[in-house]
Each structure stands twice: as C-alpha cells, then as structure tokens.
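Continuing from yesterday's entry. The apo prediction looked reasonable, so today I'm repeating it with flavin-adenine dinucleotide included to see how the binding region is handled. Same sequence as before; SMILES copied from the compound registry.
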Amino acid sequence: MTIPVDPQATERESLPRRDPRLEQQARNRLHPQHLIALQALGRGAAAPQERWMGPKGVTRRDPHVGHFIAANGRKRIDRSGRSGPAAAGAGQPAVVAKARVLPLVEIASPAFLIAVVPDMTGGRLSSHDRDVLGLARQIADADPAHQGAVLAITFGTLREDGDAADSVGLGAAGADRWLHFADTLHDGYAPLAQLAELEAIDGKLAPRLWLLPESRTGGGERGRRLGARLLCRGDALARPSGNAYQLDGELAAIGRGELVEVSVTGRSGNGQQDLTRPLTRIVLCEAECAEPVEDVRHAALPLEWEAASTARAVPDVIEDLGPVAVDPSAIALGEAEFILSAGNGIRDWDGFHRAASLLGATEGASRVAVDDGFMPRARQVGATGTWVTARVYVAVGISGAIQHLQGIQRCDKVVAINTDGGCDMVKRADLSVIGDAGAILASLCQQLEAERSAVSDASAAGQAPAAPSTSSSASSATLAADAA
Amino acid sequence: MKADRSSVAQQASAPLEVVSLVSLGQHPVSGRLRRAEQDARALELCLALERQSAPGAVSLSAWHASGSEIALGSEQDQALRGYLGMGLESLTLVTPNAPGAAPLKAVDQPVVDVWPLLVTRLKQAAPQLVVCGGQGETGEGSGLLPHLLAESLGWPLVEGIVAIESCDGAHLTALQALPRGQRRRLRVKLPALVSVDSAAPAARQSAFAQARRGELSTLASGELVHDAQAETFGVAPARKRPKRLKRIKATSARDRFKAAAAKAEGGGGKRLEGVSAEEGAAEILKLLREEGVLR
Ligand SMILES: Cc1cc2nc3c(=O)[nH]c(=O)nc-3n(C[C@H](O)[C@H](O)[C@H](O)COP(=O)(O)OP(=O)(O)OC[C@H]3O[C@@H](n4cnc5c(N)ncnc54)[C@H](O)[C@@H]3O)c2cc1C
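Holo prediction written out below.
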C-alpha cells in the first residue's frame, strides 16, 4: 500500500511539519521512491546539498558531498571553507567575498545634533576619533523616539580611505552629517580660523554636545579654545570637561537637553584624581571612552554651509611658517613617524645610512643587526627593543621574526625589501619589493638626488614653488549636496 | 631648533616685557608641593630668551596668582621658591584686593578662580609676552587658563612652544612642537600668550641659596572670585581604567581558531617580484609620497 506523495503538501502548511516517512525515503538511496522524496523535500537529486539546516536549527552536512581525497587515498571532509555554498566557483580559492556591504542607516530629521570634531591626523580617522564618534553615536541613539544625529566636522585635506559612497570612512565610523572645510589653510596651523568656524556652527546648528578627542594633535586645543570663547560670551555650560572617559546617567537626557541628568568623569590635569561633574556642553574625550561603531554605516551626508568666508575674515595674528626640518636621528624611536629599519640582509651599511638621511627617516634595526654591532642598542625594534608606532615602516633585509613583528604591530604601512619572497615580513608588508637591498637602496638614493637637484635647479632659475597655504579657493568649503 | 641668537630684539629704549606665569605643582608620587613641571619649563624658556638677547632688552617677571596670601615658610612658599632658585630676584604674588575675605559659601575646598585676577593685572601691566605652562598640576588642571586669558585679553595664544627663536617689538618667531618629534615655525603678533608643554627643554635645577635669597612680593589686584562649579566637583583618587579587550568577531569555529592562533598572515599587500631595482625603488618612493612622509 502506497501513500501518494504530494510535493506541494509541505508548502501548503504554514507551520513547518516533518514527514518522517519522506525523510527516511530521502535518506535511503536504495529506496525506489528516493528521488521523488528528495525532490519533495526540496533537495534536488541533481546537485545534492553539502549542508542544510536541520529541524532543530543545527547545520547538517552530507559527508558524501564536501569531501576530497587526501594524500593517503582516503576521503576527508574539507573543513577549509573553500568549498560549499559560500564559495561559488569550485576551482578557485575563495578569497573573493571580502567587500562586506554594511547596512546603511539614514536619519532624515534628527531631533538634535551631537557635534564631533575628529582630529583626522594625516587626513585619516584615528582610532581615538572612532572612539569619540562611537560615544557620540551612543548618545544620539540613546532614545529611539528622540533620535539624534552625529555631525562630524573636518578640516583640511583628507585622504580617500573608504569607498565611493563614504570617501573618508566617516559614515562607517558613525557620522550622519558631515561638514568639511577643505581650505588648505587648515592643513597648517590655523586655530583662530577653525575657532571662528566652530563658533559659527555652534551658533547656527546649536548642537547639544561637542565631543572632541583629548589629544595633542588638535582636539584638546580646539575644544579649549571653543570653550573659552563661549565661556567669555557668557555660556557657563560651555566649560570643557577635560580628559573625560565616562558618562554616567541616562544618556537619553542629553537629547532632551537636560545635561545635568548626566555626569561626566575625567582625570584631573596631573592624572592623579578623578573629577566627576555634571555634563557640560563640551567634552574632551580620552581614547577608549566608548566602543567604535561597527557593522553599520551611516550616511555622512555633506551639509551645506555658506559661511566659508568666516575663516578668511580672522586677522592673521598667528602665521604658520611651515614645518621645520628636524634631525630624524634625534627623534625617539618610539615616536618616530617614518622608520627605515635594517636587518641581517644589509651588507652596505654606508649606503643604508645615506638612504636614511636622504629619506629623512629615523633609523631602526633588528636584533641581529644590533648584536652584530652595526647599530646601537637603542635602535632595536621589537619585543626586547622598542615598540614603534611609525606610520610608515620600511624593513630592509629583515626576515620578520615574531619578536620583531610584535614591535611593529602598531605601524600603519609596512614596506619590505627582501630577497626572500616567502618570509614573514613580506607577508606582513603592504608593499614588498623582492630584490637585493643594496641595489634598491642605491637606486632610491639616486632617484631622490636626481629629483632634488632638478628642483633646486628650477628654484635657482627663479621659479620658486608657491607656498601651499596661499593658494586656495575661497569657496572650497561650500559643499554641493544638501542634507535633509 | 637652532635659535638665531643675533636676531633677538635689541631695542635699547623699551625693553620687551615678558611675564612668566607660574603655579604650584605637586609631585606625582609623594604628593608634596613643588614647582610645576610645565611652568618651570616656561620660565626656562623665558630665561633662555633673556640670555640670548642683549642685556637689558628683556625685562622678565614671574607671577603667581593666588586667592590668599602665602605665609613665609609655608609649604606653598617653599614650592614657589623653587622658581626663584632658577635665577630670579623676585616673584610677584597676584592676590585679590581683600584676600582674607570669607568664602561665599561654606564648602570643604574653596576653589578660587585666578584668571580674573590675572586678567586685571595683565591689563594694567600690559606686557608684550606672557609665557605659561599648558596644564596645572594641582586642582582641576583643565588647561583652560591660558585660553581664558587669551580670550578675555583678545591676544593670540599659541600652544606647545619649545623655543623662541626671535622676538622684536611687534612679532615673535617660535618653534611649536608637533607630535612625533616634529617642529613647526610660527610667527605671532605681539602682545601674545605662549604656552609650553612637556616637549619644551627641561628646566634647570633650582639653586637653594638663590631660592632663599629671592623675594616674594604681594600685589593686590581685582576681586576674589569663587569657582562655584569646580567646588561642586566630586573628587576621588584616579581609578585605574580597564584595558580594552580584543574582541574577536568570528562566525565559525574555524575563524575563531584562526584568530586565536594567527601569526603573520598574507594580507592584501602588493608584491613586486622580478622587477628591476629602479622600478622597485620608484614604487617605494611613490608609497612614501602618498603617505606624506617624504619632504
Ligand atoms: C627572547 C628573544 C627576543 C628577541 N627580541 C627581538 C627583538 O626585540 N627585535 C628583533 O628584531 N629580534 C629579536 N629577536 C631575534 C629574532 O628572533 C630574529 O632572530 C631577528 O629578528 C632576525 O633578524 P633579521 O631579520 O635581521 O635577520 P635574519 O633572520 O637573518 O633575516 C635576514 C633577512 O634578510 C634577507 N636578506 C639577505 N640578504 C639580503 C639582501 N642582499 N637584500 C635583501 N634582503 C636580504 C633574508 O632573506 C632574510 O629575510 C629575539 C629573539 C629572542 C629569542
């Protein structure tokens, strides 16, 4: 006696129901109804699934499908994640699925604004900036019924870091609105012009709160300048809360404008005491004051701002005469920005020192180079030497032992010059050139010298390059698109 | 950083009036009062300016603003004499007109706002240059005082100065410390405020005999103002902040294992193999230029 199999039976029912008989037939490959049962269960016989969701929510996998024949001739389940539903092509290794598209959050009509002025050191968001934006996000999202928006204000030339929709990654860091002053004036030291802009923003957009990173790279100074200006204008709430690292109380109160409901804790100037005070309108936040935004992307809509002339109207009582050449060897290794580091692969030490001085890089070394007496101990990079924080680290003839790699964990860009393309330093590097270190350094010096002599010839001929701070368009701060 | 000694002002007629603002510091370990680290550096900067200019071209005075008078031999007195020991004949105490007046409210720790006193005094004395430390070591240490002075006097303020290169009657050329050991040259219109942080050259030692010899003179100016906000602050010994944990967001056991056991992984780095040394060098130069580390 056979029970007719209705393929639509399972779909008609709203509740998922199991049919044990059908499942048994689907499991038994020798059953005469096997193929029909497979189809009824939605698993085509043509391409048997490797994994599926079992009835209890546990992933099941078919060992007959996702396997390969190992070296000893036996079937092995492939656990590398290279096959299966995630990897589309069977043949190619699956390194493709990298560009994660984060869900976009748009806040059309915010109830209030939280202003953040990230430092954008070197034109990029620092991790400190991200933490501050994360804190701003927490405050803006504290009350879903009274949704706020985060306004990021940036100055100067920025670097393209993100994708087309979010060019500097401010959206992914949590900014809903974005005000950018692109004037190259801000690349130098223009505290008064920036203060004028910030004050104008405070007057016009009236953000509930100003959050700035408490840093020596701009945030601390901007916040204090703004605070002093607003205090002297009679706004007692504008007194900056420095070195702040914690907000206590109901964050939703900030959105309603009841700042006293929240207290802020920060270190005193000497770092020995914690001061707790009612929240003020300007908070200078320490690093790690909050978790950075993850997994979502905010719109970072450019705001239209017509007060671009404010900056120019400020009297130029502080004039930036530009950076001064500093002897790179006088900079402590731990805080050097650009390090040229030598390892056991260096033969021509004079060439290395020449390259370092021509590049204007601080010299570093691996332990072997130090042990062999070519470099002083104070120049050793790594676990037993100095943990460096350079933005650019060039490793010449260094194999990348783990003790060395530990020391360069916090470097942004690593360049490796090595004869061995398989060494660990090359794996770590953002750019690696496989070749002889001596020849590459010599060529580097040669190219630099050729360029510099060309430039000095040109300037000798009377074509001194114009100072960058004087050539900028006045209206560059006006941004095209309008924010809701 | 090489100071151009020859170009420092030589106006025999009117000396450059320089005021160094000094405060009470506190030793981070013992908690005893001492000269403040940054203020001492500020004074050192002034002394260096005095030394590098012609004799008589700079007239330097040091001021300490205080809500009350300071008794001879008290801990405050000892601490302030640390500045005198750096080679000063006298130090001016700027106090309110009625220093002994009762506090406005009965609070445990009355906090006196000293910046109004200094503003009044600076308006009277009208020096060309005021040099101070960036952040105080006692009390709130908000680092706001130089900004408030600059804002109420309408003077420019520059932070983080490490050397004064030259100073004529109208402008000041100074080097400003940037992070990572970099320096920037600034030209500031006088009168101006300059603040100094720990990047500036270390202060000289304080000589004991000079500290004893020097004189603290009191000068009353302005009204006593209480910082009512700061009096309400809750003060507690600094709590150690927890380190942020490295959070691993892995969706599968394999990812978790990899995150725990990972060492150097082949990132998406660019790799140049089999190119000539010239091409390799050109590519490196290109990256260095993009990063802006090449000058
Ligand atoms: C407890 C302990 C602590 C340590 N702490 C540190 C530390 O703090 N810092 C540190 O650096 N090390 C440290 N080490 C040592 C570390 O393990 C390695 O031995 C060391 O880093 C290797 O240095 P290297 O890369 O210069 O030399 P090698 O490993 O010899 O590598 C030389 C590299 O140069 C390349 N090369 C050779 N010739 C050329 C050429 N002509 N052109 C280009 N490339 C060439 C080679 O391919 C090779 O990759 C420590 C070791 C221990 C045990």
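Comparison notes:
- Chain A touches chain B through 95 residues (CB under 8 Å).
- The longest strand of chain A covers residues 241-248.
Will overlay with the apo model tomorrow.
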